[in-house]
Every structure is written in C-alpha cells, then in structure tokens.
Specification:
CATH class of the largest domain: Mainly Beta
Radius of gyration: 20 Å
Number of helices: 3
CATH superfamily of the largest domain: DNA-directed RNA polymerase, insert domain
CATH architecture of the largest domain: Beta Complex
Oligomer: single chain
Strand content: 35-45%
Strand order of the largest sheet: 1-2-10-9
Distance between the termini: 29 Å
Structural class: alpha+beta
Shape: elongated
Number of strands: 10
Low-confidence stretches: none
Mean pLDDT: 94
Order of helices and strands: EEHEHEEEEEEEH
Length: about 200
C-alpha cells in the first residue's frame, strides 16, 4: 500500500517519506516538484523609459528572475497574465531600485521579497517599465522552477524514499508536493489513455 508521510516542514522546505512507491514514480514526482508545477514569472517587459547604465535586456532579465507569489487555485494555464509596473520616478540622489518598487495589479502575484536588487540609479536617472507575468513551468525556463531543490534519497527499506523539496517562495512547500502528486496522477492517466487507444 502506497502512502506519503510528512517528516518535517517549515516555510521554505518540506521532507516527506514515500512508502510503497516504485522508484520510477518517486523520481518522476521529484522532477515534477522541481520544474513541473506551474508558477508565475515575468515573461514580457515593455521598457517605457530607461536612462540607467543598464541595457533594457538586462533589466528584463533581472525582472524575469524575481520569484513571484503564486496561487494556483485562482488561475488557469496558459491564459493567465498579471501586469506589474516599475516606475522609479526622478531621483535627486543615487538609489538602488528593488523589488519593493515593482507594483502588481494582483493582490497575490507579487515579489516574494522586497529586497531583491534590480538596478542602480545615479542622480537624474530613471526606469519605467510595464512587465507581464504568466504561468509557466521550469521545463520551459528555469525562472518558472517552483523549487530551488528537489532531492530523492533511498531509505534502508524496500520501496521507501525520502523526498525533500525547497521552495523558491512562489508556493508553500506543501503546495508543491500536493500539486506534484496531482500532476503525476494526471500524466499517468493521460499515458494510460494513449495505451488504450494504441491497442
């Protein structure tokens, strides 16, 4: 009989014991928890004004790598998009623009931290952009990885493994594992249908 038991959990990481689960399924769950659970990331950036020393492409890349909080129950792939705006205004002194300056139109989808540096502005420099975040998966690009770490270790017992998942902050660790199990079940069902139709 298969089962999942939570061994330890905190806001950043969770460890679960998988009992009676074949290695190929346990490993598939590990991979899905790493890059198969959808989260939000900035995908398109419209630069309205940029007088900083950074190129537009560098700013877009930095914005894309900022982890964004995600609430899967409210959104559907691939249609969901959220607008985030960054407007530094005209500064009279040198300043570092951070993720705290990135304002979201959605109450949930926003940076997981306000302390991520985006650009350094000298006096008189300005950045103004409109950024669009969408749901994606890490199989497409690492910025959509829901986990920083997803490790599977074998215990001393047969068909028993320990899965440790560390979140990027976009989702709660437990949410990643639950969504991973749901995604694995969905993929197995789809594969089963393909086999039935093949016969």
């Amino acid at each position: 009989m298969s089962s999942i038991q939570v061994l330890s959990t905190d806001p950043k990481k969770i460890s679960v014991r998988l009992k009676g689960v074949p290695l190929q399924y346990a490993n598939a769950l590990r991979r899905i928890c790493l890059n198969g659970v959808p989260i939000f990331a900035i995908d398109t950036v419209d630069v309205i004004e940029n007088s900083s020393a950074m190129m537009d492409e560098s700013i877009a890349h930095r914005l894309g790598m900022i982890p964004l909080k995600t609430e899967l129950s409210r959104f559907n792939e691939p249609d969901s998009r959220v607008l985030l705006v960054l407007d530094s205004g005209n500064k009279e002194t040198s300043e570092i623009v951070t993720s705290a300056d990135l304002l979201s139109q959605d109450e949930v989808v926003k940076p997981t931290s306000n302390k991520i540096s985006i650009a350094y502005l000298a006096p008189g420099q300005k950045i103004k952009v409109e950024a669009y975040a969408r749901l994606g998966r890490g199989t497409e690009h690492a910025k959509w990885n829901s986990s920083n770490v997803s490790i599977l270790t074998h215990t001393d017992k047969n068909n028993e493994y320990e899965l440790t998942v560390e979140t990027t902050g976009a989702l709660e660790p437990k949410e990643i594992v639950i969504a991973g199990v749901d995604e694995l079940a969905k993929r197995l069902e789809e594969f089963k249908e393909i086999l039935v139709n093949f016969k």
